[in-house]
Amino acid sequence: MRIRAGSCLTRALLIVVWSMLTYMVYVSIHDQITACISVEYFTVGHAPVFDTQDRTLLGLGWGVLAAWWVDLLLRIPLATLARIGNRPKYTPKSLIRPVLLLSDCSAVLAAASGVTALVLATNGWISLHPEMSSRLPPDKHTPFLVDLWIHKASYTGGFVDGTFVMGWVWRMRIRMEQADPA
Fold first, then answer.
1. Residue 154: inside a domain, yes or no?
2. Which of 29, 57, 60, 88 could form a disulfide with 176 if both were Cys (CB 3.0 to 4.6 A apart)?
3. According to the 3-state scheme, what is the secondary structure of 128-148?
4. Residue 2 domain-assigned?
5. Containing structural domain, residue 139
């Protein structure tokens, strides 16, 4: 069986692949930044998956490893909601702005969380769990907490934003159908 270039399945796969690549680029940049803040977040705070202390390699490696499977779980439903049924369909091109906006929102949330963690840790209002704090020198605690908060915010933001974009795509398809019922 041959799949036509413009078929619904092909376009759905393009949505999944394109949006996953976009998010993996975002997460790799995100992890490059956080590896510069606290390399210990990756080397002490995670299982030793990558045998390196190199911040660039750790950022790239963890960016891909941590993102692909979660992103796939969000992008398949997005592609399905964009293409399924008889309603007007979203093309891969028409989803560029929503997917990029999703990354922008995650980045803003991550940055705000990092700044919040910095202020809270600097003032002694938050601290590392004793088990983790015993594994790090005291001067590494605040950067580690900043990274931790940045990452937690990104995971939460990515899930919430991804769910929001799915709902938005579905609502917009309903509106497009109602505007042009032919």
1. yes
2. 88
3. CCHHHHCCCCHHHHHHHHHHH
4. no
5. 8-179
For position 108, what pLDDT does the model report?
A: 94
Within a domain: 67: yes
Domains in the chain, number: 1
Please check whether residue 1 lies inside any domain of the structure.
no
Query: Residue with structure tokens 């989803």?
Result: 95
| Cα gap 19→170, rounded to integer Å | 17
Q: DSSP string of 7-22?
A: SHHHHHHHHHHHHHHH
Distance CA 84, CA 98 (A): 18
Query: pLDDT averaged over consecutive 10-residue blocks of the chain (182 residues)?
Result: 58 87 86 94 90 89 83 90 91 86 88 98 97 96 98 90 91 90 61
Contact 63, 24 (CB under 8 A): yes
Which residue shows structure tokens 């002694």?
124
CB of 158 closer than 8 Å to CB of 74: yes
